[in-house]
Design goal:
single chain, about 120 residues, 5 helices, 3 strands, about 10% strand
C-alpha cells in the first residue's frame, strides 16, 4: 500500500503521463485515444483524492467541536487541525450548510465567529 504522501501524487503523475503520451501520439491513432483515457483517469483520481481529503477534514472538525462544548473560532480550529484557514473555512461553510455546525453570532467577522456543534 502506498503511503499517504505518495498517494497524493499518483493522480497528477498519471495525468502528466497521459498528456505526454497524447503529445507524442498521432491524433487519429488508438494510442492518442488511450492517452486521453489515461489523462482523464489521472484527473478523476486527483479529484477523488481531494474530495476524500475534504470529507476527512469535515469529520475532524465535527470531532473537534464535539470535544469543545463551548465552541471554537476559525483560527483555533485551523491551528488544532494543522490546516490553512481557507481550507478550514471551506469545511466549516459546508458543515454550516448541512446543519451540523452553528455560529454563535453571525454579525462578528468570520475569524472571530464562535463555531459550535449543532444540537
Amino acid at each position: 500500500m502506498l503511503s499517504h504522501a505518495t498517494h497524493r501524487f499518483c493522480g497528477p503523475a498519471v495525468t502528466v503521463f497521459g498528456l505526454a503520451l497524447a503529445a507524442t501520439s498521432p491524433v487519429h491513432s488508438t494510442g492518442f485515444v488511450l492517452s486521453l483515457v489515461i489523462t482523464v483517469n489521472g484527473l478523476v483520481h486527483t479529484w477523488d483524492y481531494s474530495y476524500e481529503q475534504s470529507l476527512a477534514r469535515d469529520s475532524d472538525i465535527v470531532a473537534l467541536l464535539a470535544a469543545l462544548p463551548d465552541g471554537a473560532c476559525l483560527p483555533e480550529i485551523s491551528h488544532a487541525m494543522g490546516t490553512r484557514h481557507v481550507d478550514t473555512a471551506r469545511s466549516l461553510l459546508r458543515l454550516l450548510h448541512k446543519g451540523l455546525v452553528t455560529v454563535a453570532d453571525e454579525s462578528t467577522p468570520i475569524t472571530e465567529r464562535l463555531f459550535l456543534l449543532a444540537a
